[in-house]
Amino acid sequence: MRLLLQHRSRYDYPRPTMLGPHLVRLRPAAHARARIESYGLHVSEPGEIRWQQDPAGNHVARVTWNGGRLEALEVAVELSLDLKPVNPFDFTLDAFAEQTPFPYGPLTADLSPYLGCNDASFAAGQRAEQFFSTLPRAGATVPLVTEINRAVHERIRYITREEPGVWNPEETLQEGRGSCRDSAVLLVAALRSRGLAARFVSGYLVQLADEARLPDQATGVSSDVLALHAWAEVFLPGAGWMGVDATSGLFCGEGHVPLACSAIPFLAAPVEGTSEVAATSVSFDMHVRRLSNAGPAASGDGPLGGEPSSRKPSAIERRASEGSGRANVLDKYEPIPGTHDELFEGRSTFRPEFRTALAALAARTPTEFARSVALAELALLNQGVTFSVMKSDQGTEKIFPFCLLPRLISAAGWNDLERGLVQRIRALSLFLDDVYGEQRILAEGKIPRELILGAKHYLPNLRGIKPPGGVRVHLSGIDLIRDPAGTYRVLEDNLRTPSGVSYVLENRLVSKRVLPRAFEAARVRRVDHYPARLAETLRSVSPAPPDASTVVLLTPGPYNSAYFEHSFLARTMGFELVEAADLWVDDDKVWLRTTLGRRRVHVIYRRTDEAFLDPEMFRKDSFIGVPGLMRAYAKGNVALANAPGNGVADDKAVYAFVPEMIRFYLSEEPLLAQVPTWLCLRDDDRAYVLEHLHELVVKSVDEAGGYGMLMGPQS
């Protein structure tokens, strides 16, 4: 999208005054993600502009007035740029920098100004040191940076602070609030405390309103906005300087236009200079205007071009100016009689716990809502958020289905749901330990022995093998439904290789940008820390110290239906994405081939089905497995997540006995309900199924992903 940015700063003095030389740092830096088409800088006459570069490589205009006196100083910028969506995580790190801490090596000398906190701007007392001690010290680099940025964002409440200068980290933490520049200084200090080179950045932040925008652009405003902003950049070998914004808690996108970067905040000030007397008032005037695709805007260092041309308001703008009487997207919504409605407690009355969150959504017209949905789907397509359907006549790559209307769960409702899920997963974990160990639940007749030992996914040759770290279920995917009475019920358990979390994260990212005010008002729990939490979980089961462990994600390859998720998680966790050919087993240890030689692998997050995992133990015809992998696993030399053999807990017949597992292992009653289930191995159940086949869903007990299923009402 082509934009014209206009910025005027005015300094009024009590009397005509002489100005000393001024340094103006308002020209976009070379590494700005937006493409700069034209640029113009104008200062009050008779100022002379001479361009130079400072030691940090910033474009700096040195302005002098040759002894003239001015009643006011005006600095004006006009620039046009082409703003296109970017994926802030579209980068790779050098191998040595994938885990923090790491040495910068030959780069250390050049980066030394960005590694220390000797300047007074970064003064840290007891409060700051205590905060720094809570930050992660080691781990995958990208998640670690994300967590540090998140910690600053959550600790410091954003305020608009008009007085000049910055607060040091101690002052900002003492206040618990600060401007964007205060949070940026604290973030720089926090990153440097972990040995990461970081610098302070001042720049423009372009925020575009919802109409006709791309969901990847920064939002949260009702009209297009241009503002001066501050953030931090961290130097990551292989990626370069990467922007992180403590005000939003996110990596910087295309709307962040850096103007000046420096090891010291003072040297990135947009305007710096002296005057005979201090200004009595300072004012700013900033505008952003969308341009057609024809021709660049004005450029040069002289006076600015003409005023923006007038244009007719769009249909949406006209409707917005008509007030609250317009139709909204939920006006004609009719709850289904006799069933629990998740959002409404009456025909047009929101449930009390959701009123605040849904207010912004309810204000949208159907046209606006449809446009937001279309643009969200376009963003998912442009970012490659797809999955594969191998038997489709319309091609294999599909955009992941996206619903803009959120599935809302209240905080109280989630607390109850979470307790039930934790209980269920604890029982299933104990069940897996038992059936691959003493088999007490079978000996006491709580579950038919033949049901377990005859299950397709029970692997008897793994009995007696204890997984490294003692964990079998590192992550799980529990499918839930809600019945007509509003009761949550477990539909299925997925403990083998749960898939789909990357789509949750991408869905949330797009939703936050399309419905920013709804998320802010509702205080929605965050999910973007999932990769960091998963990385921490995987390192925790390593047979080596976590800080010295190598973790990889094993994928079957790009033809797998969930390959987008494999690459997404590997990138966001900072782990190597590997295929079977990248690994081999020697001396019952797993090794990774790298350009620097072999490297010991301690944890494998496997996205390969266990039947193909090791041709020595499982399918002999597997080309996507690692020969000898299970030998290394049995010796405790490598952890596999999730543990092989978990599939027996996913069995649709075993599902019916989970409530009994909870009672047997935990001596508790189940907190979550299940879907009524009839097992065809029982005579009475089989007769009932045959009599009511047209009303039921029939599932093959050993399938997953919707395979082997018969929908009675539609069959």
> Largest sheet at a glance?
7 strands, antiparallel
The third-level CATH topology of the domain at 529-641 is Rossmann fold
What Rg do the Cα atoms give? 30 Å
CATH architecture of the domain at 529-641: 3-Layer(aba) Sandwich
Q: Could you tell me the number of beta strands?
A: 30
Terminal Cα span = 49 Å
How helical, in percent, are the residues? 25-40%
Query: How many helical stretches?
Result: 20
Structure description:
This protein has 715 residues and is an alpha+beta fold. Among the domains are: 2-84 and 275-290, Sandwich (Immunoglobulin-like), CATH 2.60.40; 529-641, Rossmann fold (3-Layer(aba) Sandwich), CATH 3.40.50.11290; 678-715, no CATH class. 26% of the residues lie in helices and 24% in strands. Strands 1, 2, 3, 4, 5, 15 and 16 form a seven-stranded antiparallel β-sheet that branches. It has a five-stranded antiparallel β-sheet with strand order 13-12-11-10-14, with helices on one face. The protein has a four-stranded parallel β-sheet with strand order 22-21-26-27, covered by helices on one side. The model is unreliable at 211-221, 294-325 and 390-396 (pLDDT under 50).
Notable characteristics:
26% helix; 7-stranded antiparallel sheet; 5-stranded antiparallel sheet; Rossmann fold; alpha+beta; 30 strands; 24% strand
Could you give a short description of this structure?
This protein is 26% helix and 24% strand. With 715 residues, the chain is α+β, with helices and mostly antiparallel strands.
